[in-house]
Amino acid sequence: MTTTGIDWSSTETPTTAEGWVARAAEVSALLAVDAAARDRAGKTPYEEVKLLKESGLVTLLGPAEHGGGGQEWPTAYRVVREVAKADGSIGQLLGYHYLWFWAARLVGTPEQVAAVEEQATRDRAFFGGAVNPRDDDVVITDEGDTLVYRGRKSFSTGSKVSDLTVLEGVLEGTDKHIFAIVPSDTPGLVFHDDWDNIGQRLTESGGVTIDGVRVDWAGAAGYRDKQFTPRVYNTLNVPTIQLVFVNFYLGIALGALEIARTYTRERSRSWLHGGYERAVDEPYVIDIYGDLTAKLWAVEALADKVAEEALVIHRDPDAVTERLRGEHEVRVAAVKARATEVALEVTAKVFEVTGARATASSVGLDRFWRNVRTHTLHDPVAYKRREVGVFVLRDELPEPTWYS
């Protein structure tokens, strides 16, 4: 991918949710042209991220007065889904960017939120994050006016293609977690080329070493005079990013179904003993497409509904109660479970309706299953179903953790 083919500077910036989704569809169409070849090559997606910037998609959640889209999470989720139809890796990168751009609102002071969002929107900065909770926490040393981060994270999605990186660690001798945003080219921040997984190959999700990265206390998100005032809204990072997951899973599945449909219409041969001249007339082929499409449409509708339900939370963060947060997490857990199962089924079953020749590397149909299979192992879906079951049977809310 060497050029976008569109002069975005001469196009009108979208002002509505539907306009931004249409913009995402344009980006998706460009990504789709050589998506299979780029997946095979596995090169760092500098051009792809450039496309996200030039199209304005990276500014979707940014304030309109600073050149951003001024949109809310339901639109961001739909944009992620649209981009992921063509390329699951780029859909994930964009979704994670939205999460880390929004992280200032999650935990920052009003002054920090305003400063971060103005600068990042105007610069069209792309965010990555070194916040993998499965690793031992990065240790932060207090040196008076300065914090020093040291440690290593196994995963840092966005790494080399990011302009800004969100760091997280624990202040030495305490249980205080501190988030901070630093330029990705900060000395002491070393990204490793060790992402070599079967799917989501272009997400730049390799490890990172954090060796003496210095941050002023003023940059410690949410802290005043070295003290943090917690609120329930601070725990919304998990359900929010889980909905990001849901939407790029659905996008990947929708993309697989679209590629398969085109292949069946144009290239699949009917079974020589089936009695039909065209593959599109075979009853079992029709049945599978109908079944998979109905399942995807149902989960899409649930995903959109859950995203809309969360607007009351995001619009009034200080009013969020533990009950409201917990019930939202249960709904997110439910749609996460269904999206995982349906995406895996769709991306595997499309081969049954395309035929043996569709397994050719040139078709690239396998990348959809590899992408979904890789990321759906992020956290066990059984524990999502458990959250729902415990709530239904015992009216118990999920305890806020890094995964619930």
Automatic annotation (TrEMBL):
Gene Ontology MF term list: 3-methylbutanoyl-CoA dehydrogenase activity; flavin adenine dinucleotide binding; monooxygenase activity
InterPro entries listed in its UniProt record: Acyl-CoA_DH_C, Acyl-CoA_Oxase/DH_mid-dom_sf, AcylCo_DH-like_C, AcylCoA_DH/ox_N, AcylCoA_DH/ox_N_sf, AcylCoA_DH/oxidase_NM_dom_sf
Ranges where the Acyl-CoA dehydrogenase C-terminal domain occurs: 244-378
Keywords noted in UniProt: Flavoprotein, Membrane, Monooxygenase, Oxidoreductase, Transmembrane, Transmembrane helix
Residue span, Acyl-CoA dehydrogenase/oxidase N-terminal domain: 32-113
A Pfam cross-reference name: Acyl-CoA_dh_N
Transmembrane segments: 241-260
SUPFAM superfamilies: Acyl-CoA dehydrogenase C-terminal domain-like, Acyl-CoA dehydrogenase NM domain-like
Keyword match Cytoplasm: no
Any one GO biological process: L-leucine catabolic process
PANTHER family: ACYL-COA DEHYDROGENASE, ISOVALERYL-COA DEHYDROGENASE, MITOCHONDRIAL-RELATED
Protein name: Monooxygenase
Organism: Actinokineospora bangkokensis
